[in-house]
Here is the input.
Amino acid sequence: MSKLQDTARSLLDAGEVKVAIGYGEGSVGRVRPLFVTDAAGAQGLIYDGRCTQNLAVYTYKKETAAMGKPAVTAGVATMRALMRLVAERQLREGDFIALAVVGDEVTVCRTLSEMENWLAAAAPKPREADMEMIARIEAMTPAERWAFWRGEMDRCFRCYACRQACPLCYCTQCTVEVNQPQWIPVGATVQGNLEWHAMRAMHLAGRCIECGQCGDACPVDIPIHLLTVKLAADVRNVYGAATGMARDETCAMSIFKPDDRENFIG
Here is the structure.
């Protein structure tokens, strides 16, 4: 933790960044995003097992962008999100510095090449609990699976916390906010909720970096992240594509190659 604080303090002192985005102590044992704009404030930065929020989500928001160039505290998931945002032209070389953290080690990545080298040794590793839950759902009959998801969607009241927590949901106007024509019902009905979450999952197919933040953010604990994590695993297995690893990567669902496997087509 002291190394992270010292690194952020040094970058702020040198004027290399204007703000260090990291984690700080919140209430009742929770952590919260912390935006440090001076060297003295760096002592409030922490990093432990509670620090799971994907901070890449703040790099393109106008409120934080106005603060100036950031240094972003980043575990593997946040590093992958930053790289995916670069690949999708939402961030550019020099827009930020990544503070890649593993345990007590902090690696300062000033360039995309340094980020790629760090990520090369950090292969995607979905959370074990997520994969176990996905396996249980896949073991269900189609009718049981349908009943499971209908039951989950019945609890959704469309707060969109999942969308707000996702670093790849950066559209300035979401499909659910388009009313001419009205693509998806506004009300929190089971049918409308199914349409909304299915649409979001498909928009993230080949792009999801498996941080699980959409599910973690749900106030009623709907495991909605399982949809995108499952699709990420399928894309990896079918196309051999790992997302958020290189600046020039494409999206597996937006390109076609003559040697793509087609045996999954019925």
Residues 128-239 form one domain. The CA atoms of residues 153 and 194 lie 6 Å apart. The first helix runs from residue 2 to 13. The first strand starts at residue 19 and ends at 25.
